[in-house]
Design brief:
Blueprint lengths: L4 E4 L7 E2 L6 E4 L2 E4 L2 H8 L8 H22 L5 H11 L9 H17 L1 E2 L2 H11 L3 E6 L4 H10 L8 E4 H4 L6 H11 L6 E5 L2 H11 L3 E4 L15 E3 L5 H5 L7
Parallel strand pairs: 1-6, 1-8, 6-7, 8-9, 9-10
Antiparallel strand pairs: 2-5, 3-4
Helix pairs in contact: 1-4, 2-3, 4-6
């Protein structure tokens, strides 16, 4: 294949997300990793009848409900709407929450989620090497684009990527064509010009192949390809396998 670009999924492909790095909070005597303990004090003055366990339950429910909605047609539920679901679950009219309180909730959630994501040094070396030969981009399913940009900025790799497309900005999630089309349009290239790399066969491989894009499936555990999923063009045990694949003749990265 004559590729000119490589597009990456973000979470659990380029960066690793470790839920145990989220803040600890005690809920009914049990320690859980969640942003709830940091978010609750922000909302508490505006919801005096709500205690922390009830807030935690509503926060978890809002995520589950957003996932249920997304699964119906892959339409994104932005973080603002997810917090609206949270407020409704608590019996609070979303319009009653001041704009500055919602902004504080979003920023606090972003900050602590970003701390749970890290870019392994081997991945940094890999994309840095690839950037010398290919145009790079990111296509990510995520409900709050500033979180993705914050992570890339913090890791000092934003400049390696010509485009960063997040589902919250597009309105559609992978495997929908619209999010892939947005990235290709920004780069001014066709589907056959870019390799898509992702860890989800049912989302990344399916979406890319439906677009006519070659796909590399990051499958570190060697799992079997789920039934009905088109075979990826490449199967990787580690992201660094892209080095020998796309930069032949150069030392592995």
């Amino acid at each position: 294949m004559r590729l000119s670009a490589v597009l990456f999924d973000l979470f659990d492909t380029l960066v690793r997300f470790d839920r145990t790095r989220l803040p600890e909070v005690q809920i009914n005597g049990t320690t859980v990793h969640s942003t709830a303990g940091r978010l609750f004090p922000i909302l508490a003055p505006h919801a005096p009848s709500v205690d922390l366990p009830r807030f935690f339950e509503a926060l978890l429910w809002s995520w589950q409900e957003a996932e249920r909605i997304r699964a119906t047609d892959h339409r994104e539920v932005p973080a603002v709407d997810r917090f609206g679901l949270l407020f409704c679950r608590l019996g609070i009219e979303p319009a009653r929450i001041p704009a500055e309180v919602l902004a504080d909730l979003l920023e606090t959630h972003k900050y602590h989620l970003s701390l749970a994501a890290e870019l392994p040094e081997a991945h940094r070396a890999c994309v840095t090497a690839l950037a010398g030969r290919y145009r790079l981009g990111i296509v990510s399913n995520f409900d709050y684009a500033p979180t993705a940009h914050w992570i890339l900025d913090r890791e000092g790799v934003t400049g390696l990527f010509e485009t960063v497309v997040v589902s919250a900005d597009v309105g559609w999630r992978k495997p929908k064509a619209a999010i892939f089309e947005a990235a290709l349009s920004r780069l001014g290239i066709g589907p056959g010009d870019a390799l898509f790399v992702g860890d989800r066969a049912d989302i990344d491989v399916v979406g890319a192949k439906a677009m006519g894009m070659p796909a590399a499936w990051l499958n570190p555990n060697g799992d079997a390809l789920p039934p009905g999923i088109p075979a990826p063009d490449y199967e990787l045990r580690a992201l660094t396998d892209l080095g020998p694949l796309l930069l032949p003749g150069q030392p592995p990265v």
